[in-house]
């Protein structure tokens, strides 16, 4: 199971017609997404538009919406938060945001700046921040493919009393902090 299976199954189940991908390096995911209309944004290569995600969102008219957005750009908490918040402004009412690289398996894998080949950055911290501050969305992370976050409009209770959001806390609390679910649970809840 991987991110592509999540994206294509959500498209098929919900009849989605429009797709936005942030971070399209080598078009590994972008070229295999099965949907009528797709836009890929990457400042270096891949996709259909060469610019930063910040510039792309600044250029969008307010009424432009996407059914599904895949975020796999710069793996820094601050940028991921910006990409998610901007995507929420352009997400269809029944839409879904999928965020890659939410589940590092080692301290080194989540260090910013990058030190390892396999790297998630601190994307997980963006998920925790949203769970601490937003009640108008619901978030889960599927335990596959380095963690695939699923964000939809809905309701969630705020995380409280997390203490310091660091690697030690993550190791102890990741199930609760990320609302980790299995592939089977994803299928039951979202498909």
Structural summary, described in words:
A seven-stranded mixed β-sheet has the order 2-1-3-4-6-5-7, with helices on both faces. The chain has 191 residues and is of the alpha/beta class. It has helices at residues 3-14, 53-59, 77-89, 123-133, 167-178, 183-190, and strands spanning 18-22, 37-41, 66-71, 91-100, 137-142, 148-153, 180-181. It is built from six helices and seven strands; from the N terminus they run αββαβαβαββαβα. α3 (77-89) links the parallel β3 and β4. The longest helix has 13 residues, at 77-89. The model has no long low-confidence stretch (mean pLDDT 97). 33% of the residues lie in helices and 21% in strands. α3 (77-89) packs across α4.
Reconstruct the topology from this structure:
Blueprint (H helix, E strand, L loop, with lengths): L2 H12 L3 E5 L14 E5 L11 H7 L6 E6 L5 H13 L1 E10 L22 H11 L3 E6 L5 E6 L13 H12 L1 E2 L1 H8 L1
Parallel strand pairs: 1-2, 1-3, 3-4, 5-7
Antiparallel strand pairs: 4-6, 5-6
Helix pairs in contact: 3-4
What are the main properties of this structure?
alpha/beta, 7-stranded mixed β-sheet, 6 helices, 191 residues
Order of helices and strands: HEEHEHEHEEHEH
- Kindly report the spatial arrangement of strands forming the biggest sheet: 2-1-3-4-6-5-7
Structural class: alpha/beta
Proportion of helical residues: 25-40%
Mean pLDDT: 97
- Discrete helix count: 6
Main sheet makeup:
7 strands, mixed
Outline, from the CA principal axes?
Answer: globular
Alpha-carbon distance between the termini?
14 Å
Global Rg: 16 Å
Assembly annotation: single chain
Give the low-confidence spans.
none
